[in-house]
Amino acid sequence: MGNRTRTSLKLPKPPGLRGVVPLLGLAAVAMLGGAGFLSMTQRVEPDEQAVRQVYFGPSKGVGQGIYGPGLHLVIPGYERLHKFPSDLQILDMNDTEVRFEQGGGRMPEDYRVAPSIRIQTSEGYQVTVDVAILYRVLDPYKVVTKVGPGRIYETKVVVRQGDKILRQTLGRLEAEDFYNQELRTKAIADARDLLAQDLEEWGLEVVMVSLRDYTYDSRYQEAIEQRKIQDQTVFKNKAEAAAATQGAEKDRTLAEGKANIEVERERGRAEVRKIAAEADLYFRQKVAEGDLLVALAEAEGTRLENAALQQAGASNMVGLEMAKAMDGTQVIIVSTTGAGAVNPLDLERLVSGW
Fold this sequence. Notes:
Helix content: 40-55%
CATH architecture of the domain at 89-216: 2-Layer Sandwich
Strand content: 15-25%
């Protein structure tokens, strides 16, 4: 076997504490500096806005400047930022939502509930209305200086003023007016305008007021149901009367139409009879005129014949005609004696008799 060469492995020596201490010191200083810096800042979230309040010194009080989202330097004990939401806020005056919250339900941070409003109408009935008010914080400076910090403006201003103005505005309506969409919408619009004017003084902006539901008390509910039934009965009777009137008008129109048709048919038949009578009269007139012409012609012929027979030699013509009539006659028996005796051989006498 060959000779083996033995080598030794040298490990690096660990650094001494002399090099670690400075690093730990720097880290500690950095941590303390970061913690100190964070303790001197306040964060404003993206959906927030803030105003600065100084507790003492020449700048003591609330500044009017608005601080937007981000980290802002604040000296503890000397000043602070009062933060308010910048997004849309909802106040829902609804007994159902109040019971849900009282039963342990949780609402979003920008959603506040309050009891429904009991309104006394002008005729003494009570109507319970559910109303939603949508608003936002428009001027945090006004809110802090006139109302106070935090969300105290919800109960102290929005709930209180909203309840007051809605009672005044909707209380002018009669109970039945809530059924009238036009009157109901106008009343809510008036309430919205009045509430907007009022809340503007507190640094709040009203976006919308919505009447979500309304409920009558049982006394009026029964009365209004009976009235609606009566109204529907009256409407039904009017509709039936109108239908009967229209039916009678329809029958009258049909009868008039049939009568007019029959009149026109009779007028047509009379016209046909008239035309037929005129045609028959015309025919008879023409036939009579023809008969008259024929009679006149025959009379003229007879007259001419008689006139011709009265001329000289006419007796000979008669005798010839008589001879033609007696042509072929073999035996003629005539009386030759007595008063009416006729001698057929006496032509002169025979001719003079015609």
